[in-house]
Design brief:
It contains 5 helices and 6 strands. By secondary structure, it is an alpha/beta fold. The strands form 2 sheets. A 4-stranded parallel beta sheet has the order 3-2-1-4. α1 packs parallel to α3. The two termini are 16 Å apart.
Length: 166
């Protein structure tokens, strides 16, 4: 029914393994067997890709696939101190690669606690769900999106959603 999509590079291999473990831990064995893991990567070696594949299968996921791709040339990092350009690969998930009606995108460094698939029941077709940021919940009242509220005052006070879980 759904696939979990992650963008994992060499720098985020270990956090990516932890994210997969957290996703698995929040699901029943039946749900894991029916779920897929899809990974986009820029630089993982064949051995690292095999590690991810084997780990996903050993944690009970019914399907795993990995595709190598590069982010669009227009992708630029505003702050590369802790995020890599691999984060922009999230825009490269395609229906042919996902092969499921739903894609739940999770940043490789997200610690998943519990079943995050419950909101799927409330989405209508072609609707995107997003998670409100726990640490930066409101535009203009947190460090996220610096300058946005000043430039576009009508956004001040609106919810800020974290693109790390879509």
């Amino acid at each position: 029914m759904y696939a979990f999509g992650l963008c994992i590079d060499q720098q985020y291999l270990v956090p990516g393994l932890a994210a997969i473990a957290g996703l698995a831990d929040g699901l029943t064995p039946f749900a894991r067997r029916n779920a897929a893991v899809r990974v986009l990567t820029l630089d993982l070696t064949p051995a690292q890709a095999l590690l991810l594949s084997d780990f996903a299968k050993r944690t009970g996921f019914g399907s795993f696939d990995l595709r190598r791709c590069a982010p669009l040339r227009a992708s630029r990092m505003a702050d590369a101190s802790y995020i890599t350009v691999t984060t922009y690969l999230r825009f490269e998930f395609t229906p042919d690669f996902v092969r499921r009606p739903y894609l739940i995108y999770v940043d490789a460094d997200v610690l998943v606690r519990g079943d995050i698939t419950n909101p799927l029941d409330s989405l209508v077709e072609d609707e995107v769900g997003a998670v409100r940021d726990e640490f930066n919940p409101t535009v203009g009242e947190c460090p996220a999106l610096p300058g946005v509220a000043e430039r576009w005052p009508h956004l001040h006070g609106r919810p800020y959603f974290n693109a790390g879980v879509l």
